[in-house]
């Protein structure tokens, strides 16, 4: 992807990444390390629970979405700084074998008044499963240079 800067972006731009699949082993490995709740790590307990089987940790899904963003590099090698995530919502469980697609839209582009060589973009992210059902949504605020040559 070509390097893109704040001055190149407009509200309404969208892009969708390549789908990725979360396998059971990956779900179990992540959860054992970072979110060891029964519905994420215990096959028997998960089967008897409200979801009927193992589900991915929402934090796991969010981290894979971040990885997908880095791999997709929608702004090329332009330096960016994540400022915050707002309204993170886990809407549906993610199960082993689900194929997730990430769709992003630029909803705001704002140049800094105090440092006009940079600004922020706000994006809306929707992650959907193979059935087109949203499983995760959030807004992300990102600082980026207005043009080439700016160091954040």
From TrEMBL:
Gene3D superfamilies recorded: Hotdog Thioesterase
Domain of life according to the entry: Bacteria
InterPro entries: HotDog_dom_sf, MaoC-like_dom, MCH/BMMD
Domain annotation MaoC-like: ranges: 20-116
Pfam families for this protein: MaoC_dehydratas
PANTHER family documented for this protein: BETA-METHYLMALYL-COA DEHYDRATASE (PTHR43664:SF1), MONOAMINE OXIDASE-RELATED (PTHR43664)
Name used for this protein in its record: Enoyl-CoA hydratase
């Amino acid at each position: 992807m070509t390097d893109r800067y704040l001055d190149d972006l407009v509200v309404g731009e969208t892009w969708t990444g390549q789908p990725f699949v979360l396998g059971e082993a990956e779900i179990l490995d992540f959860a054992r390390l970072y979110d060891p709740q029964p519905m994420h790590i215990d096959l028997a307990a998960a089967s008897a629970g409200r979801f009927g089987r193992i589900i991915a940790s929402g934090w796991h899904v969010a981290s894979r979405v971040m990885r997908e963003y880095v791999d997709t590099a929608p702004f090329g090698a332009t330096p960016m700084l994540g400022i915050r995530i707002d309204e993170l919502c886990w809407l549906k469980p993610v199960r082993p074998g689900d194929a997730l697609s990430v769709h992003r839209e630029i909803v705001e582009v704002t140049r800094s008044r105090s440092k006009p060589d940079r600004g922020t973009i706000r994006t809306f992210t929707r992650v959907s499963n193979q059935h087109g059902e949203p499983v995760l949504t959030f807004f992300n605020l990102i600082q980026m240079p207005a043009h080439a040559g700016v160091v954040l």
